[in-house]
Structure formats: structure tokens, C-alpha cells
Design a protein that fits this description.
The complex is a heterodimer of chains A (about 100) and B (about 290). Chain A is α/β, with parallel strands linked by helices and about 100 residues long. Helix content of chain A is about 45%, strand content about 15%. In chain A, α2 (about 15-30) packs parallel to α3 and α3 (about 45-60) packs across α4. The longest helix of chain A is centred in the last third of the chain and has 14 residues, at about 70-85. The mean pLDDT of chain A is about 85. Chain B has helices at about 10-25, 45-55, 70-75, 110-130, 135-155, 185-190, 200-210, 225-235, and strands at about 5, 35, 60-65, 100, 160-170, 175-180, 240-250, 250-255, 260-265, 270-280. Classes of the chains: A alpha/beta (about 100), B alpha+beta (about 290). β6 of chain A pairs parallel with β9 of chain B, so a sheet runs across the interface.
Chain lengths: ~100, ~290
């Protein structure tokens, strides 16, 4: 069991590097049945969740998320959807915009 | 002696005024002096970029009436030196926070990650404790803005200085948040991985319209949605918001759902500025209705 509030000493999980730290800890853990405990976590950013979910999905890792509040769970659901979105590359055309241009 | 006037009018007038202030400051040489008109009204939108340029160019500043409200206010918010986030405390009136800044050793190496996370946590708590009305209705939205926008600045700006400042006006029931860095700007960041992004205009347009991101590793090739989602949240009509992004000589600005590209012409700001002003909503804002 990894207690996130204890590990990161915060109630808000916000950075991609936190997700990478957590993932690295999971990799080093030999226990196959590991849980990530979100008790006391009030908010997880989209960046954190997408980064964590992406790494877990890419490497087919099996972990259990427990004690997510509604906020965190909704962000997790969002991360699952985001993971399946295509990457964006620069457009070929220029200035294909609708808002007017304000020159100052 | 050049004099700058801080003011609070309509959004588009404020934007014009900001450009005027920045043009004045940019024309000064390092170490010059600038005066601030004591009759104005200071908001984060004008205060933060002014502090950023004054500090970068090591300008000195004076104020026409040292006993004026403006003078007292600028002292309370620690303009222009700012304060380290860990030392930031609510002002004496309860409605004023100081400007917080990451600078020097805090912005490099292993300390950088810690400093940006610290300023996010500290400033979020300050905002919610100082402006208690916002806690129930906007705590998620504020946590979202701070996490996404500060993470972007940390990862992409290469900045030596990062500023954050917030203000709540109880009579107007309006909240304003301004973040600015003095880094390489959106074009500098995007061009590292997309060399065809050669202008500020192209960079701003790609980020706003297509959510182009500087992250391209196999795991992180996802669209950059922090800014786009922020704009979606503030587009909530009940918030009666204004939003401005400026980077280099180009930008994007909205008042409610009326948006414009902003061409700064020969003026190029160093780094990236983001300013959000929102009206206190009647109900709690559910960010999940807006973000993707």
C-alpha cells in the first residue's frame, strides 16, 4: 500500500514528476498486488493523472487505486479518455482563425 | 521622468493600458527611474508585468504621493521586490496577498521542482484562506488553474523568475489571478521540438487553436490541454470572466466569450503572462463540466 498523502506531503497531487516518482516506486515493488491509497488527497491535477495513467497503461501495470474522493475519481476518468486522444502536430496552414485581430 | 498610471476600466481598456505601461518601461535603460501615478487603481494585470520589468531592468521607482492609498497598497503587496512563497502571508486588511516570486537559486536544478510545487501549495492555501468566499465555490477551479499553469511555467519556460499574484475585491465580488515568467516564451518552448514554429503569433495560435504541446516523448505525446481547459472553465458565462495570454509580441484575450488575437507589434514581452479575472459565482463551479 502506498499512501500518497504521506509520500508527497501534500493534499494536492499536481505535477508530472510526482506521477513519475510514484511509477518508479511501483516498478521497484516486487509485490504484485499493490494499492495506491488516495486517502486525504483533495485534488489530483489532470497532468498528474494523465501522466500516471499513461505510464501504467503503456507498461500494462496492475495496481489498485483506493479511497479516491469524487474529484480525484472524476479526474482519473478524464485521464483514461485523454490517453486515447491522438497526438497533435503543427498545422500546415497559417492563421486559420476566426477571432478578430487586435493590433496594439 | 516617465510616469506610469495603473488603472481599472473595461477589460479592453485595461489591456491597452498594460501595453502602454510596458512600452514605457521597455524604453527605459537598465537602472533608470520611473514614477507611478498615485491616483490610479492597481490590479494584478498591471502590477505583475510591471514588477517583472522593473526587476529585470533593475529600475528604481517612486510614487507621486507617498501617503496615498496606492503607495500603501504597493508596500503591502511587496511591489516590486515580491516575496518568497514560503514567507507569504495575508495582508493586514485580510483582502491583500503579497506578490510571490521564485527567483535565483530557487529556480534552478533540483530546487526548481520543489520551489514550483511549494509556490503552488502555498499560494493556493493563501487564496482560499484569505478570500474565504471563494473556498466553497471555486476551490476546484483555483486548484486547477494553479496546477496546470504553474506546471507549464516550470516545465517549459526556462525562466529565472516566476511571479504569481491574486486579488479579491469584496465589493465587486471579483477575483483576479496573474502569473508571469521571464523565460523563453511559448515560441521558444515549442520550437525546441517543432522547429517550424518560428514566430510568437504561430506559437500562440497553435496552442490556442490546436493544443500543440512541447511534450513529444512516447508517453507524453498528448495534446497540451492545460491552457485550453483553463479557457473552457473561464468561458462559463456565470463567471463573467476575462482571460489574457501574452507571449513575446502576440497574445489572445477574451472578455466573456468575445475573444481577440492580440498583436503587440514592435513590443515583445519577455516570457509569458496569463491573467484571469472572474466574478464570484452563485453556485459551486464544477470544472468537470468544462475540461477534456
Amino acid at each position: 500500500m502506498i499512501l500518497l498523502k504521506e509520500k508527497f506531503e501534500t493534499t494536492h497531487l499536481s505535477t508530472r514528476s510526482m506521477a513519475r516518482d510514484l511509477y518508479n516506486e511501483l516498478l521497484q515493488n516486487e509485490n504484485q498486488d499493490i494499492s495506491i491509497d488516495f486517502s486525504g488527497i483533495e485534488f489530483a491535477s489532470r497532468s498528474f493523472m494523465v501522466q500516471l495513467y499513461s505510464m501504467l497503461a503503456k507498461h500494462r501495470s496492475q495496481v489498485r487505486f483506493v479511497n479516491m474522493n469524487e474529484n480525484v475519481d472524476q479526474m482519473y476518468q478524464l485521464a483514461i479518455k485523454a490517453y486515447n486522444r491522438p497526438a497533435v502536430m503543427p498545422s500546415q496552414s497559417k492563421n486559420n482563425s476566426s477571432p478578430e485581430l487586435l493590433s496594439l | 521622468m516617465p510616469v506610469i498610471r495603473l488603472s481599472n476600466n473595461s477589460h479592453w481598456e485595461n489591456l491597452n493600458q498594460l501595453i502602454s505601461i510596458l512600452k514605457t518601461l521597455h524604453q527605459l535603460r537598465d537602472g533608470d527611474r520611473v514614477d507611478i501615478d498615485s491616483n490610479g487603481f492597481a490590479t494584478p494585470f498591471h502590477v505583475v508585468p510591471s514588477a517583472c520589468v522593473i526587476n529585470r531592468k533593475k529600475l528604481t521607482f517612486g510614487i507621486s504621493d507617498d501617503k496615498s492609498d496606492m503607495s500603501q497598497y504597493l508596500k503591502i503587496i511587496q511591489f516590486p521586490d515580491c516575496i518568497s512563497a514560503k514567507d507569504a502571508k495575508p495582508g493586514v486588511s485580510g483582502n491583500y496577498l503579497p506578490i510571490a516570486r521564485i527567483t535565483g537559486e530557487e529556480s534552478v536544478g533540483a530546487q526548481r521542482e520543489k520551489s514550483y510545487k511549494n509556490i503552488e501549495d502555498q499560494y493556493r492555501e493563501l487564496i482560499l484562506n484569505c478570500f474565504g468566499n471563494l473556498k466553497d465555490k471555486l476551490s476546484n477551479a483555483i486548484a486547477f488553474f494553479l496546477s496546470e499553469l504553474i506546471e507549464n511555467a516550470k516545465d517549459h519556460s526556462d525562466a529565472e523568475n516566476f511571479y504569481i499574484f491574486a486579488q479579491y475585491w469584496p465589493a465587486l465580488k471579483e477575483f483576479e489571478l496573474c502569473l508571469m515568467d521571464d523565460g523563453i516564451g511559448l515560441q521558444g518552448s515549442l520550437s525546441k521540438v517543432h522547429p517550424q514554429i518560428t514566430t510568437d503569433e504561430r506559437a500562440v495560435r497553435e496552442i490556442i487553436q490546436r493544443q500543440l504541446s512541447a511534450r513529444i516523448s512516447d508517453i507524453e505525446s498528448l495534446p497540451g490541454t492545460g491552457l485550453a481547459n483553463t479557457i473552457r472553465i473561464v468561458s462559463n458565462k456565470e463567471l463573467q470572466s476575462t482571460f489574457t495570454l501574452l507571449s513575446g509580441n502576440f497574445g489572445y484575450s477574451c472578455s466573456n466569450d468575445y475573444c481577440k488575437w492580440v498583436d503587440l507589434g514592435t513590443l515583445a514581452i519577455k516570457g509569458t503572462l496569463i491573467n484571469i479575472r472572474i466574478k464570484e459565482p452563485r453556485e459551486r463551479v464544477n470544472i468537470f463540466n468544462y475540461i477534456q
